[in-house]
Design a protein that fits this description.
alpha/beta, Rossmann fold, six-stranded mixed beta sheet, three-stranded antiparallel beta sheet, about 25% helix
Length: about 180
């Protein structure tokens, strides 16, 4: 994809949330997570690559002791449709008998987050919480009624980018949440 096409995607996109709205959502999430997990000494797992930006925004707002690690599993790569789960990196820290907080950019169908949470439970995690910046509202979840424990923004069923979410590997750095025109 050439640079002009990438700029066209950005310029034609619908902005669903401004940078200020995203920051307010992150502030609210940080307060809710702090209230729930401050006494649990959690292991926070950033889900790469999408979770990188939300993790970088949330972690300095947490006012409690925690450890950080990451996990990398993807269904999209540089595509716009999900496929089978591709495990790239498992956590290095032991999750056994720990409270785990998985931080990711989005809960769409939930296949990746559900698999990651299942993996943590299989490895002996005491409890697993899901935190996402964006939660898509639709009925195609991997488990009926699946929701994140903490979410910043609820959006409709569109193809999104910005604040960690990407379009074919690009625009994770866009300053807000955008929907690709026609997708």
């Amino acid at each position: 994809m050439d640079n002009k096409a990438l700029w066209d995607i950005f310029e034609e996109a619908d902005q669903l949330a401004t940078e200020a709205e995203v920051q307010r959502a992150i502030d609210r999430m940080a307060a809710e997570i702090t209230e729930s997990l401050r006494d649990k000494r959690p292991l926070v797992l950033c889900v790469m690559n999408g979770g990188l930006i939300i993790a970088g925004q949330l972690l300095p707002r947490f006012r409690f002791p925690l450890e950080i690690d990451y996990v990398h599993a993807t269904r999209y790569g540089d595509k716009t449709k999900g496929a089978g789960l591709d495990w790239k990196a498992l956590p290095k820290l032991d999750v056994r008998d720990r409270t785990v907080l998985l931080l990711d950019d989005i809960l769409d169908e939930g296949v990746t987050l559900d698999a990651l949470a299942h993996h943590c439970r299989e490895q002996g995690a005491r409890e697993v919480f899901l935190a996402v910046l964006v939660e898509k509202l639709h009925l195609r979840k991997v488990r009926p009624g699946m929701r994140a424990d903490f979410s910043g923004l609820d959006v409709g069923d569109r193809f999104l980018f910005g604040y960690g979410l990407d379009y074919k590997g690009f625009w994770r750095n866009a300053p807000g949440i955008y929907a690709v025109k026609g997708l």
